[in-house]
Design goal:
- With 349 residues, the chain is α/β, with parallel strands linked by helices.
- Among the domains are: 1-132, E3 ubiquitin-protein ligase SopA (Pectate Lyase C-like); 274-349, no CATH class.
- It has four helices and 16 strands.
- It has helices at residues 3-17, 224-230, 307-321, 325-330; strands spanning 27-29, 47-49, 67-69, 87-89, 107-112, 127-132, 147-149, 167-169, 187-189, 210-211, 253-256, 262-267, 276-288, 291-300, 331-338, 344-347.
- The chain is elongated, with a radius of gyration of 25 Å.
Length: 349
Amino acid sequence: MDRSEIRPLALLHEAWLKNEAQGRRWVLTDEDLSGGDLAGLNLNRALFRNSNLRGADLSDARLSGASFENVTLDAAQLPRAVLIDATFNGCSLNEANLAGANLGHVSIALGGAERASFERAILAKAVIDHVCLRGTRFCNARLVRSRVADCDLQGAVLMNADLSHAELRAVNLGGCEVSGARLERTVLVDAKVNGLFGLPFLVEDITAARLDFGIGGQSRLGGESELRAQLGGAPGEPASRYGIGASASLYAVYFVTDHSGEYHLLHRMSDDQDVLHVAHVELTYNAQAEGELLVIRYLVLDERFTQLDAERLLKEVFLPQVVAPELKQRACGIEFVDAKTGRASYDFG
């Protein structure tokens, strides 16, 4: 389909949008529009199915409410396009250019947008689910109140992006650049953040998130000075002794130190209590006749946190959410050792 065919169809679609009798909705099914020129067209509420728009020019196009189903948009040009309430299901947007596009309330599911550009794009209240976003650029993008779930964002660039009130759930942020990003009251749950660059950042809820900044076994954390800057609640509110905002909801945060098998635990036992840097934890194995015993050696760092509190946290949160299943399966039992008193307890369940 060439430009001479596209223009008449677009005019019929505009008439359909105006409820004119001669109008007809744009429904593109099983068509090849690779490299096609759709720039500036009004295709609001258009339907694209099983079609190829690789390298197509949709710059400045109006596509609000449009539906894309199993469409190839690799290397497509959509700068400044208006895609409010649009849906992408099973689409490929690899290396697509959506710089400055308005994707408010957009839904993107079951697809890929690797190395795509969403720079300066508006993605407020967007829902992005099961999408590969490796190496994708979100510099200066607005993802306020967006929801990103089960996505791979390894190597993505989020410099100066606004993710305030966003929810990032089960995402891989390994190697992401987040310097200058705004994450006020962002919810980060079950996320992998190995090698995350650009601290400090603000989060509201990183319950059981793994803060592993190690690269080649070496931690990128420079000690508690960086940790203090890393976790916060609302801007301007009083912070805890570890720099964690009063409204932050942190219950089992941990980060890996320079040496494999060493962890630090932070914990808040109630919403109105200060966050406690409760323990330094080491994982080792001890050979026994029956097999290997997983030894969890902990040093309580805050006197407000008792030995019983420490063991409860280790059993109820640290073991099920931090220790990998294969490590637990390898062990014939678990030994909890209080490094201060030498007291040990066992769990062979």
